[in-house]
C-alpha cells in the first residue's frame, strides 16, 4: 500500500503537546510526513511545494484558513483532519464541495471540558469558593460553621444541563455516580431520549427555575445567542450557580453582571464575549464569580488526545474503515 503524503498546518506555539514526537513517528509510519514543521500559511513557496504532494492535511489551532483555492493547490488531497475542536472558520465550503473528507478531534477536546465541569459542579454544590473566601478573610470559622447548616452540598440537588451536545452528554455520564436530579433542555431531544440519558426533559424556563446548578453546553448558533437573558436569569433560585464552559455569546453578559451584582446567584465562568473581558469588567472583581481564562478545554498534556485522535482517524481512513468523527457540510449548521 502506498504511504500517503501528510502535511501539517497549525500554529506551533498554540499546539504544543498536540503532536509530540511519538505521534509524529506514528504518522510517518502510517504515511509519509513531508515536513514535521507545520505550515503557518498556505500561500508561500514552501506551502505550494508541500500541498502539491499532500494527500492528507492535519490542521490545528491557529491553522491558516483552508480556502477555496486549496483543491487546486492540493490536487491529490483526500482528507483533512482538524486536531482541535470546531472546523468553523477553518474549512471553506469549497473543501466539502470538492469531495475532500473532513474529520476533527472535538471529541478529544470534550473530555477535559466535561471533567472541568464536573469539578465546577461539585465545588459549586459545596459552595467551596465562598467558604474559602470567608475562611481566608476571617482566619477563623465563626462564619463558616453556620454555613454548613444551610441547604447546600451535593446530595439530592437538582442540576440543569442545557444542551445534549457531546460535552453535555459526557457531563451527564460523569454525573451518574452522584445523587443529583438531572434536568435537560435540548429542543433536538424528546422525553424518551432524555430519560435514556438519565434526565428529565424540561423547557428552558422550567430548568432555570428548578435547578440549583445550571451548566451550559449548547453550541454557538444564531438561534442560541443570548439564550440566557435577563428574564431567564431572573428565574434562577436564590443561591443557585450558573456554569458556562461553552461560549460567552450564549449569555447576555450585561444582564448576567447585573444579576451577579445583587449577590443573589453565583457563577463559574470559563468563557466570555469578548474572549478577554474589558479590564474594568466586574467579572474580575465580584466575589460570587469564579473566572478562568478559557482553560476547560484541552491544555498542556491534555492536548495529546487531540493528536492521538487525529492519527486514529488517518489510520482508519487509510485502512478503508469508516471514520468516527467525520463532518459533513450539512452538519455544520447544528454543531459548535
From TrEMBL:
It holds the Pfam family 2-Hacid_dh_C. This is Hydroxyacid dehydrogenase. It comes from Rhizobium chutanense. Belongs to the D-isomer specific 2-hydroxyacid dehydrogenase family. Keywords: NAD, Oxidoreductase. PANTHER family: D-ISOMER SPECIFIC 2-HYDROXYACID DEHYDROGENASE FAMILY PROTEIN (AFU_ORTHOLOGUE AFUA_6G10090). CDD domains: 2-Hacid_dh_8 (cd12167). GO terms for molecular function: NAD binding; oxidoreductase activity. SUPFAM superfamilies: Formate/glycerate dehydrogenase catalytic domain-like, NAD(P)-binding Rossmann-fold domains. Residues 144-296 form the D-isomer specific 2-hydroxyacid dehydrogenase NAD-binding domain.
